[in-house]
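Tokens for Adhesin. Go.
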Amino acid sequence: FTGAYYQLNNDNFAPGKTAADYEFSSSASWVDVDATGKVTFKNVGSNWERITATPKSGGPSYVYEIRVKSWWVNSGDAFMIYSLAENFCSSNGYTLPRADHLNHSRSRGIGSLYSEWGDMGHYTTEAGFQSNMYWSSSPANSSEQYVVSLATGDQSVFEKLGFAYATCYKNL
């Protein structure tokens, strides 16, 4: 998603070296990497990205390849009922995620939006996410849907005529 970021840590470099000992570059225009090794996604791109860390004092470079499997968008600050969330996603060529695609575990890990990226309220306003409940495509019953908090990862049930935010994804 736009505004998503991660930080290259000191354990990504040669022993005794820190990010300050390297110059960073990105192979794609849709990703920025700053002087501290913070990698930020600017917009949707292809699914592979290469970050190169070149030692300022000379020597071999480190190359980090990352694969982005899906791209996420959201409804910004617009609350909506379930049917509007479905329409928001499909009309933009995206899919409303299942509850387990939003969060399959309260612990950090790879594979769902919350477990991989954490509290969405921590990202810039450019990202558009709120620390609140988001619709999933997972039905609880005929009149209710599961929603997931992108602040805590908790799952609840809302009536389809209730209000929550929408986030959608597409595979890259």
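Residues 131 and 150 are 6 Å apart (CA to CA).
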